[in-house]
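Service request form, structural biology core

Requester: graduate student, group of Dr. S.
Request type: structure prediction, single chain
Budget code: on file
Notes: please return the result as structure tokens.

Sequence provided:
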Amino acid sequence: YSFSQTTVTVADGSVEGPIPVYTYYGYSYGEVIYLQNEINSSGDIDQVLLEWDGSETESRSWKIFMGHTSKGSYTSTTDWVSSSGLTQVFNGTVSLAGIGSSYFVTITLDTNFSYNNSDNLIIAIQDNTGAYTAGTSRFKSQAASDGNYRSIVKYTDSGVVRTTSPPT
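Core staff response, request fulfilled:
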């Protein structure tokens, strides 16, 4: 995440999976919690960089939300943070390139998010593309090393996943 010319790396990209969204499905919604001690810097977030495995070329239609939370992990498959408590910071197209190797996709936000460095940060992405490509395409994320799950995702081909009360 980029803080006014400072980049803060909060994940190691060691695991490929359906987080923050799953491009094998037409629609998905995912939330990820980043702990304050991983970020450890206040300021305006103006970009998000996500590590893409580089296996496919496609364009995705996304909305990105951010917010502060005291939640440190998800306790069940229904333990969502409603987007009504989050701020929409991006609505547009994200282009992913199939270059055959991992790289960081840079998404410049429509609206900066002011992170306070006392709460945890939640980033939620709603994928409204309505189409999919190969099932092998994945973003890379950090493995849960402490046994706590800090991400949750719902994916489907049946229509937009609502963000105010996502399903199980």
